[in-house]
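Design job #97: recover the sequence.
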């Protein structure tokens, strides 16, 4: 699933905050410069598209990237369970859940809990390898014209250390070329 050029223009117009469009399989479909830079750790592996669930449950670096890994893991599983309920015939989504159940005891245990969650806002913390701790205000919006896709934006509180860190991350001249999946 991809987006049209107009939606990429919208993403690129968001310059002060990381933003990305994801699908119901927890894949990053498109992002702005800061979105790619924030989630650069997801792009260091070889598997594409970048997938939040695989990163959380199959990559040990996720335990460093997410300061509260348990919260990130529980939220991820609850969102996936909701997505499966909303799209029970989605073979790709079903295959992802089966893969994670097979490869991760942590995922399998959480999946058995049958928690379901709608996730549209939160304060999220990241331990970014370049700029350190980031505490960002997450807001998610489903894209009505594109079922199964959602826009996520992560602004920092104005004047906060996280805002300064995002500005530093945005100022890196090679940030997008390092992590842009189109160029990988």
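Job complete. Output follows.
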């Amino acid at each position: 699933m991809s987006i049209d050029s107009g939606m990429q223009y919208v993403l690129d117009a968001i310059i002060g905050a990381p933003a990305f469009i994801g699908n119901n399989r927890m894949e990053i479909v498109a992002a702005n410069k800061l979105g790619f830079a924030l989630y650069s750790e997801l792009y260091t592996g070889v598997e594409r598209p970048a997938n939040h669930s695989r990163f959380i449950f199959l990559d040990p670096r996720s335990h460093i990237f997410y300061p509260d890994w348990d919260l990130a893991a529980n939220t991820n599983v609850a969102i996936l369970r909701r997505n499966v309920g909303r799209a029970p015939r989605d073979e790709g989504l079903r295959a992802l859940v089966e893969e994670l159940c097979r490869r991760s005891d942590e995922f399998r245990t959480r999946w058995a809990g049958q928690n379901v969650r709608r996730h549209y806002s939160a304060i999220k913390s990241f331990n970014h390898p370049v700029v350190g701790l980031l505490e960002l205000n997450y807001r998610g919006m489903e894209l009505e014209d594109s079922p199964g896709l959602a826009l996520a934006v992560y602004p920092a509180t104005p004047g906060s250390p996280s805002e300064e860190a995002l500005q530093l991350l945005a100022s890196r001249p090679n940030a997008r070329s390092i992590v842009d999946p189109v160029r990988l």
